[in-house]
Design goal:
Blueprint (H helix, E strand, L loop, with lengths): L3 E10 L5 E7 L4 E5 L8 E7 L9 E8 L4 E6 L3 E3 L10 E9 L4 E5 L3 E3 L4 E10 L4 E10 L8 E10 L2 E10 L18 E8 L11 E2 L4 E5 L4 E8 L2 H14 L9
Parallel strand pairs: 1-5, 4-6, 5-8, 6-9, 7-10, 8-11, 9-12, 10-12, 11-13
Antiparallel strand pairs: 1-2, 3-4, 12-15, 13-14, 15-18, 16-17, 17-18
Protein name: Urease accessory protein UreD
Keywords: Chaperone, Cytoplasm, Nickel insertion
Pfam families: UreD
Length: 259
């Protein structure tokens, strides 16, 4: 039996230089917990998988709002594993991430990897709406198949709008039914870990980093707006995380908003 669930997180400035989390709403397999942040200026919420999901036919969503001047990190305890449905008619699962960041606010969206298990079908969408002075750090990582198995079908669609204008619109697809060549030498070249890091920062209005390679299989690309996109592939999840962490460290010196 398929599951429909939506978890919600809202972060607000507490008026004392910190951030409160007045809304932590869990639903179905998406359990949300307040956790300790290593940086006292940021609140932190962690998503805990309460059951195996997404399975074929599931409809999952998570909504995160960082209101004006709030600073919040949202992460997860473990990887999300997309699994086949219980029957041949289950259909694909969907996972919808909706992010909204207000004026002078910052959201760090840093979940663990998404694993596309053999036989699974998942459509994932991530939509971010940012105010003009908002800051966003977003990491996405996809692992195409568990150890020793083929990947399932995975499609992702990331859209980001800043001050009402498009900043990024990107679609990717892997596995059975994806456009030909997705696993060829010109795309993945045998790698099975794919990831990206997006940093949107008003500080980049004064100048963007130059495009450059980061190691042999990652690239930093400035966008047409105050944002930088790092795209990487790797042989496994550990190597992918290392590349993205190193890239994030070099990009951490941006502004903290207007508040």
């Amino acid at each position: 039996m398929s599951v429909s669930a939506t978890a919600r997180i809202t972060a607000v400035a507490d008026g004392r230089g910190g951030t409160a989390l007045p809304v932590l709403e869990s639903d179905g397999p998406l359990a949300v917990r307040r956790t300790r942040s290593p940086d006292p200026a940021y609140a932190r919420a962690t998503v805990v998988g309460a059951m195996s999901a997404p399975l074929g036919g599931d409809r999952l969503a998570i909504e995160v709002r960082a209101e004006d001047c709030a600073r919040v990190t949202v992460d997860s305890v473990a990887a999300t594993v997309a699994l086949p449905g219980a029957g041949p008619d289950a259909g694909p699962a969907s996972y919808d991430v909706r992010l909204r960041v207000g004026e002078g606010a910052e959201l760090r969206w840093l979940p663990e990897q998404l694993v596309s298990a053999c036989g699974s079908e998942l459509d994932m969408t991530t939509r971010a709406e940012l105010a003009g002075t908002a800051r966003l750090v977003l990491r996405e990582e996809q692992i195409l198949g568990r150890h020793g198995e083929r990947t399932g079908r995975l499609s992702t669609h990331l859209t980001v709008r800043r001050a009402g204008r498009p900043l990024l619109d990107q679609q990717l697809a892997y596995g059975p039914g994806a456009p030909g060549g997705w696993d060829g030498a010109a795309v993945l070249g045998g790698h099975r870990a794919v990831g990206q890091l997006l940093v949107v920062d008003p500080a980049y209005d004064d100048g963007l980093p130059a495009p450059r390679l980061i190691g042999p299989t990652a690239v930093l690309t400035p966008l047409a707006g105050p944002a930088v996109l790092v795209t990487a592939i790797a042989a496994d999840a550990r190597l992918l995380r290392t590349v993205l962490d190193e890239a994030l460290e070099t990009l951490q010196n941006g502004s903290k908003g207007v508040c």
